[in-house]
């Protein structure tokens, strides 16, 4: 597909013309309304208007109004006939990847809402904890972040070889 600096489609190869995606001749008309004000979209439009290279995720609306995502490269080139800068556009569809990523994110958010979760470094330092965990142990986040797991243990448990071995084994297995 070739686009001029004014964002108008001048040429589409047979692969693009068979896609139901193409519903307009101006790229702004096929941008997803959800992405039109986002920084990455504005950066793309600026790059095109300035005749410079751009690559990134492009969020578009399909002719049937579904959302579609493409990993896209806009490469400026000089048109031999018109001697004007036009763009060659190369894309690979990312819709399934983005959709799957959103599903995983939604699942993690659901788990975070329903479970008590605490995150440790490999040597036992507390990196994060969700509200369910904090409410369960009656701590504020500021009281535990950066502290060692041992704050939740009895001194008699912490001062054992088994406790030290636990953290050493965890670190070894994670880096193996």
TrEMBL record:
Coiled coil: none annotated. It comes from the Bacteria. InterPro entries: PAS, PAS-like_dom_sf. Residues 25-83, 122-159 form the PAS domain. SUPFAM superfamilies: PYP-like sensor domain (PAS domain). This is PAS domain-containing protein. It comes from Oceanisphaera pacifica.
């Amino acid at each position: 597909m070739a686009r001029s600096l004014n964002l108008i489609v001048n040429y589409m190869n047979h692969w693009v013309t068979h896609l139901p995606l193409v519903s307009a001749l101006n790229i702004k008309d096929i941008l997803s309304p959800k992405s039109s004000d986002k920084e990455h979209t504005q950066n793309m439009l600026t790059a095109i208007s300035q005749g410079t290279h751009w690559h990134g995720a492009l969020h578009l609306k399909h002719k049937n109004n579904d959302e579609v995502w493409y990993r896209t490269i806009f490469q400026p080139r000089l048109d031999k006939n018109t001697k004007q800068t036009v763009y060659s556009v190369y894309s690979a569809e990312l819709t399934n990847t983005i959709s799957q990523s959103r599903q995983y994110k939604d699942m993690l958010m659901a788990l975070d809402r329903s479970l008590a979760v605490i995150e440790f470094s490999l040597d036992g330092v507390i990196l994060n904890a969700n509200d369910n965990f904090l409410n369960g142990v009656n701590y504020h986040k500021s009281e535990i972040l950066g502290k060692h797991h041992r704050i939740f243990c009895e001194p008699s448990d912490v001062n054992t070889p088994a406790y030290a071995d636990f953290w050493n084994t965890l670190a070894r297995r994670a880096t193996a």
